[in-house]
Amino acid sequence: MSVATRRPLSIRFLATSFLMLWLIMAAFPFLWTLWGSFKVEGDFFSKADWANSIFGTLTQVETGGSFTDDGYYGAWVQEEFWRAAFNTAIVCICVVTISLTCGTLAGYALSRSTYRYAFWLLLFALIFRAMPPITLVSGYLLPFFEWNLWGHLSTTIIVLVAINQPFTLWMLHSFFKNIPKDLDESAMVDGCTRFQAFRHVIIPVMWPGVITTGLFSFLLAYNDFAVTSMLLAKENHTMVPKIASFLGTTQTKGNVMFAVAAVVSVTAPLFVMILFFQRQIVSGLTAGAVKG
Amino acid sequence: MKHSTFFWFVFPSVLLMIAFIALPIVSVVTQSLYSKHEQVIIVVENCGPFGCTQSTTVDQAATEALRAEEPLGKWAGLDIYKDRNHLAVNEVASAWVNSDGLPDFGRTLMNLPFYSAMAFTLTYTAVVTPLTIILGFFIAIAVNSVARRLRGPTIFFSLLPMIVTPLVGSLILFWMVDARGILGTGLQWLTNDPSLSVKASTPLMWAMLMVYGVWHSAPFAFIVYYAGLQTVNTDTLEAAMIDGASRWERIRYVVIPHLVPLTTFIALIQLMDNFRVFEPIVSFAAAAHATSLSYAIFNDLGGETRLLSSAAATSVLTIIFVAILLSPVLVRTWRDFGTQK
């Protein structure tokens, strides 16, 4: 950075302290909950002295150690959270695979078509993207009850894929636009059909965009509450609705710590995901905006 | 691309969207025009030694049969829209006549479920969207002016509130502002009021939900602005500097105009997302103080008696609002496309 553009000390100090404040706001709640999840409820919600939650005074009294895994044991084993985790894994894997398969095909076609209907399709996708999912859920329930589709994982997977499509389309459309047209057109001059050109020329170079889009499809499926809580039978619940049901049943039993442990368990994979895919997430967030 | 090739490429995706987004909208509209069959009541005459008495009982079997035969229920027209839980036409009309002054009228409206949900949703959208944009902008400016080493970790931690499941993120905050949690205790200490509880106070609950909203979506604005800041034209910046523009003037006249298109994009996404505010209300158990349109639908759908028609009517009203909210953007996109050609 040249001398002329270097910021004066006061501004740098101001910027750094503002940033520190924001970082504390962003990270502290997670660290606090992670730390607290290994304590007993009396320490996590400490009326007497907030320092208890750091040193675990009551935890020592009740369990003998400063840390306890009672919350995790209660959630994962006693309340069978592992079942929900297993369901979440199935839902996420299926949603990501199916929505990427449909999305890449359609996104590619949209980026290569010059007709007006391609634009209309994108516009409709934008309108669909704006629909709150819960309004659609109220449209599903009656038909699903009538046709006995309600409660199954497979129904939820298809619904999540569909809700995910508008976003996937927009994102992949903008990624495919950046792959030069000459690439697949020269393949077609050499005698490939459109699909062969897609298969042999586009697929090998599309992975960065597809991985980014896949991350966001995964997040949508993983984070969804409206659809999964309404369309899944209780024994098929994924992790997020399971946590919500903990709140209803365990708050009275004094087992808030189950919910705390479950919350930490849900956050952990996301944490790892950001750690490894930070670059892709950032590029995905800005794909629509910066490239236009 | 040929029409037929295009058709086969987009077919699976379009089929999914028609079956699970377009048709449900039709289904919602239809359901909102029907109401559940009432229970079949039969009048039984019991005659004993002291004369006859008439008693009414519910014919369970007939009710079941009727409901199974016509699951949609019976035609209700616009009645559901007009009832107390939705537009409450009669209640509003009488309140308009009887109330003294607008504030009183407003209070009556806030007691009607649909209008209070509407009020919260609109306030939430109107407050959270600009605050998100402003906070995101300042974080981006700050990150841009600190040492390069700090940028990676900053982006990492900033992504957390946004990526983490909304239900989970809001629960984490909720536990902290609980009267026994660290922030709740801190608030009590600050205000010197040991009975202060966010859970018990409507204004505090609204404020807390909005704080959560900004916390959750500021990272998005930050990331987009940060990417935008990397592409600011340095020649223009240097030219402005040579012409004697101060630091603030450079931000005001070079950087901000460069970021305006991004702001439109962020505002659009945020409007759509904030309007569907839902999970924090579940996590904060805030239904007594604040409900949103999405929460009203969720509440109707859940529970033992699924009020499908009522939920459908609220959904239709929500969809209409989304359409109104989105119309300027749609008109603009359409016009832009026209000029591109």
Give an overview in words.
- The complex is a heterodimer of chains A (292) and B (341).
- By secondary structure, chain A is mostly helical.
- Chain A has a domain at 86-286: MetI-like fold, CATH 1.10.3720.
- Chain A has helices at residues 9-36, 41-44, 52-55, 57-63, 70-78, 81-112, 116-130, 133-146, 153-177, 181-189, 194-205, 207-223, 226-231, 239-253, 256-290.
- Chain B is mainly alpha-helical and 341 residues long.
- Chain B is 72% helix and 6% strand.
- Chain B contains 15 helices and 4 strands.
- Chain B is globular and about 110 Å long.
- The mean pLDDT of chain B is 87.
- Chains A and B meet through helix 1, helix 6, helix 7, helix 8 and helix 9 of A and helix 1, helix 6, helix 7, helix 8 and helix 9 of B.
Brief descriptors of the model:
heterodimer; A: about 290 residues; mainly alpha; MetI-like fold; 15 helices; B: about 350 residues; two-stranded antiparallel ribbon
Helix content of chain A: over 70%
Low-confidence regions of chain A: none
pLDDT < 50 runs, ≥5 residues of chain B: none
Report how far apart the termini of chain B are.
Answer: 17 Å
Q: Judging by the overall fold, what is the CATH architecture of the domain at 86-286 in chain A? A: Orthogonal Bundle
How much helicity do the residues of chain B have? over 70%
Summarize the structure.
The complex is a heterodimer of chains A (292) and B (341). Chain A is mostly helical and 292 residues long. Chain A is 79% helix and 0% strand.
Per-chain topology:
The complex is a heterodimer of chains A (292) and B (341).
Chain A: H1 9-36, H2 41-44, H3 52-55, H4 57-63, H5 70-78, H6 81-112, H7 116-130, H8 133-146, H9 153-177, H10 181-189, H11 194-205, H12 207-223, H13 226-231, H14 239-253, H15 256-290
Helix pairs in contact in A: 5-15, 6-9, 6-12, 7-9, 9-12, 10-11, 12-15, 14-15
Chain B: H1 3-32, E1 34-35, E2 41-48, E3 51-58, H2 60-69, E4 74-75, H3 79-82, H4 89-98, H5 102-110, H6 113-145, H7 151-163, H8 166-177, H9 182-191, H10 202-230, H11 234-242, H12 247-275, H13 279-283, H14 293-301, H15 308-340
Antiparallel strand pairs in B: 1-4, 2-3
Helix pairs in contact in B: 1-15, 6-10, 6-12, 7-10, 10-12, 11-12, 12-15, 14-15
